[in-house]
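Quick one:
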Amino acid sequence: MEQTVYCEGCGVPLQSEDKSKAGFLPKSAWNNEQVICQRCFRLKHYNEVQDVDYSDDDYLRMIHQISDTNSLVVKVVDIFDFNGSFISGLQRLTGNNPIILIGNKVDLLPKSTNRNKLINWMKKTASEYGLKIQDVYLVSAVKGYGFDEVEEAINTYRGEKDVYVVGCTNVGKSTFINQLINRTSGIKDAITTSYFPGTTLGFIQIPLDEKSALFDTPGVVNRQQIVHYVTDSDLKIITPRKEIKPKIYQLNAQQTLFFGGFARFDFEKGLKQSFVCYFSNELMIHRTKLDQADEFYTKHVGELLNPPNRESLEMLPQLTKQTFKIKNEKTDIVFPGLGWITIPEGGITVTIHAPKGIQLSIRPALI
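Output:
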């Protein structure tokens, strides 16, 4: 019986029988120095994404295997999309194994961000989601910030146990693992990473010592993430790549802000004040009068209000509105996958328009 060989890039079993299925590798490439499937090869060298015949439940079933192990679970979330990148029911999927929580992409936050406040908010929110965690760490997987503390924590909590790194799609989980591997072994880009969701398709095993290993796991799909409703080119625009520069808009009541064509903020009632917007520096923000906003959107979405481009517009759920009475000062309204607005003064009413199914949230201001 032939031994199963797994792709070093995404963890899927390799095969040469069916080009349309995951793990396809031409027979001529089996003896290459790095054995990766054709999908990983094209993703790595040409930035092309090939769809695979895996369902959302397939990924959850794979993660559920962790509940049968005695291990440490490292849960990675995207600081800019905490709610969207949080795996619902993770405690059930991973059993009684201890969990540490990693907030990735900290390098993109403005330098004025209160780190302790962010960590405390993450602990509180994780608890509200029913997740019992050992601790929270803030890192930049791309820049390598915060990894001294993370390495020490992993070694402390795991003992001699295996480590499973889990996360939703597009949180930077594979980049996080590559950073760990690079720091310990000097090997760069050991596993395939990309902007695109669903890159890792199986468990990828990286030895830690003679007794234990680190496992990269498939990204869990959460349909509340806006990433699943945009084209690759739009995803690059709305995903911050540099430190966010806040944009301040002084608004009177009955004025509106559009964030590209993805979301809309209506200032319904309240005293004139300055709203601070934290979004990708490349996302265009447009101001208009509230009584002209519907017509403005219909006329300009996909063109002046871009992104979304026309292709994304066909995939994007219809914008639905939700009204909030903001009582407290210094409050953030979070648009999952996009960013947030800080409201400095309380006592106002706002209406938010966001794609249906994308869950808005409110929190005390982080900055």
